[in-house]
Amino acid sequence: MSNNLLKGKRGIITGALDSNSIAWKVADQACQQGAKMVLTNAPVAMRMGEIKKLAEATNSEVIPADATSVEDLTTLFQKSQEVLGGKIDFVLHSIGMSPNVRKNISYTELNYEFYHKSLDISAMSLHKMLSVAMKLDALNESASVVALTYIAAQRTYPFYNDMAEAKAMLESIARSFGYHYGKKKRVRINTVSQSPTKTTAGSGIKGFEDFYYYADSISPLGNASAESCADLCVALFSDLTRMVTMQNIYHDGGYSNTGVSTEVMEKFKS
Ligand SMILES: NC(=O)c1ccc[n+]([C@@H]2O[C@H](COP(=O)([O-])OP(=O)(O)OC[C@H]3O[C@@H](n4cnc5c(N)ncnc54)[C@H](O)[C@@H]3O)[C@@H](O)[C@H]2O)c1
Fold first, then answer.
1. What is the CA(262)–ligand 1 centre distance, in A?
2. Quick one: pLDDT at residue 252?
């Protein structure tokens, strides 16, 4: 259903790797709500070619950018304004990757070079994006930036490894930059803390499948889907949420505030 919530708005969507990606659903929903967009991903992700399908479906252009490269991000923001015909109204940061997780290295024996990479790709990239956007004055007044995060930023989930620190840093950057960009141009910066979702990044985590069902049985509403995450992102991009900034918003079916559910208690009945 379209209410044209994003009619006339211009956006940049990062991280749509394939049709399971949360960013894919966000781009799809933003298009249905009347937005014009540029899609971007790391040059290596482009080789898989999937993003072209989304570009066609949403009538968007694709501009490759490694989110750790200030040079690439500068080109991204410059070209996006040219392609879309003006300053940007919304940005989705949907980027996460840990070489330590990929290589099954345990948290207590982290490879520190990889650790740097995890933080650079998954967290510092948000700072780089915002700093580039500010330097170029690429964002419109009251623009909205949303980054996707996970509750392991607040609580320990052993399988989440060094991504826990990356997400804690990401959320902190959203608050700190949210202050500065808010003062300067009323730009809003929020993080959405999403339920476990079956995507490439999600499923790359060992034990993810089991945990997915655990979280689902704890949450009174069940796990939040990628589609409903897209609805929330669109709401945050829209003018209806123009006073919401520097927040971490749990989008998890109630998981974060539930101690235990009767379904889980049943499993431990003596
Ligand atoms: N899937 C989940 O369970 C879950 C839960 C909470 C939060 N998140 C977060 O949602 C976001 C999107 O992940 P997803 O689950 O849709 O998985 P995904 O694998 O589809 O998306 C991750 C994206 O990051 C991109 N990326 C990696 N390195 C990059 C780089 N250097 N430059 C630019 N892009 C790069 C990948 O190409 C990919 O498109 C991530 O931040 C993830 O941590 C996911």
1. 32
2. 98
Task: Give the residue carrying structure tokens 């964002």.
Answer: 139
Determine the distance from the C-alpha atom of residue 48 to the mean position of all C-alpha atoms in its chain, rounded to a whole number: 20
Domains of the chain are 10-266 (3.40.50.720)
For 107-135, write each residue's pLDDT tens digit: 999 999 999 999 999 999 999 999 999 99
Question: What stretch of H or E contains 34?
Answer: none
The span from the CA of 194 to the CA of 150, in Å, is 6
Task: Please indicate whether residue 60, judged by its CB atom, sits closer than 6 Å to ligand 1.
Answer: no
**Cβ(189) – ligand 1 distance below 6 Å:** no
pLDDT score, position 9 = 98
The reported pTM is 0.98
Q: Which residues contact 95 (CB under 8 A, 6 or more apart)?
A: 14, 15, 67, 121, 122, 125
Among 53, 95, 118, 162, residue to substitute to test ligand 1 (most atoms within 8 Å of Cβ) = 95
- Give the whole-angstrom CA distance, residue 158 versus residue 161: 6
Model confidence at 207, in pLDDT bands (50, 70, 90)? Answer: confident
Alpha-carbon torsion angle 205, 206, 207, 213, nearest 10: 20
94 CA to centre of ligand 1 in angstroms: 5
